[in-house]
Design a protein that fits this description.
Radius of gyration: 15 Å
Order of helices and strands: HHEEEEE
Structural class: alpha+beta
Strand order of the largest sheet: 1-2-3-4-5
Low-confidence stretches: 1-41
Helix content: 25-40%
C-alpha cells in the first residue's frame, strides 16, 4: 500500500534511519535471503526450526495485516516463535517493503527478539535489506 499525507514523512524518516543503520543491522544477517534467524543462535536452532521460522516470516510478510502476528511451533524441538509485520510502504522504485518484529523462544527457554525490514522481490520473496 502506498503512503500518503503525514505518514510519508514518518516513513521517509524510518527509511533514512534504516539506511544509516544498515551496517549495524548486518550483525543479524539472514542465511540465504529469507532465513528468519539471528546468526548468534543458529547453532541452537535445528534445521527444522530454521525452515519453519523462514516459512512463517514469508507468510507473515506476504499475507498478514500490520499488527497481526503469525505464530509457529515446532513440536519436535520445542522451539516456537512469532512474526508481526509492523508497517508497509512502497518505495519510489515501486518496491513494497515491510518492517517487522520477530521473536523466537528456544526449548531451553532462551528468547531472542529482533526488529527487521524486508522488501519484496519481483519473484514474490521477501528479502532483508
Amino acid at each position: 500500500m502506498a503512503i500518503s499525507g503525514g505518514r510519508l514523512a514518518e516513513q521517509a524518516t524510518f527509511l533514512s534511519l534504516c539506511a544509516v543503520l544498515l551496517s549495524a543491522c548486518s550483525v543479524f544477517p539472514f542465511q540465504g535471503s529469507s532465513e528468519a534467524i539471528f546468526s548468534t543462535v543458529e547453532t541452537s536452532l535445528k534445521p527444522s526450526d530454521k525452515s519453519i521460522a523462514s516459512k512463517n516470516l514469508q507468510k507473515a510478510l506476504e499475507k498478514s495485516l500490520s499488527g497481526n502476528s503469525v505464530r509457529w511451533q515446532n513440536p519436535t524441538s520445542g522451539a516456537r516463535g512469532s512474526v508481526t509485520p509492523l508497517k508497509t510502504w512502497k518505495t519510489s522504485e515501486g518496491t513494497y517493503c515491510r518492517s517487522f518484529r520477530e521473536k523466537i523462544e528456544l526449548a531451553s527457554g532462551r528468547t531472542i527478539s529482533r526488529n527487521g525490514v524486508a522488501c519484496r522481490t519481483a519473484e514474490a520473496v521477501w528479502e532483508a535489506t
